[in-house]
Design brief:
Layout lengths: L1 H9 L5 H12 L4 H8 L3 H22 L1 H25 L2 H15 L1
Helix pairs in contact: 1-4, 2-4, 3-4, 5-6
Amino acid sequence: MEISLLFDFYGQLLTEQQAQAISLYYNNDFSLAEIAARMGITRQGVRDSIKHAEEKLLNYEKKLGLLSRFQETEQSLSRIEQLAQSLKENYDTDIADEIISTAKSLHE
């Protein structure tokens, strides 16, 4: 799952062959043999391509941290929504509605 998420963030930084192999393997659940047949390379070539792509994706995340920042933001937004809901239930509903609406718009 992590590689698939990293691919969403950094997939365009991979070579075309690496991106295709990762997509077929992680997103479409193809076997190495199926990918090899589709791409016209050996199973070992597919495996190497996937491993190199995984290393690149992990390295990009280590350097740039986009996925971890995204996940932290999502968690913070969820917490804001919970707090606003509590505020709405206990105090000022207009302000709470605006906070909830703003937080939800950032999720989309």
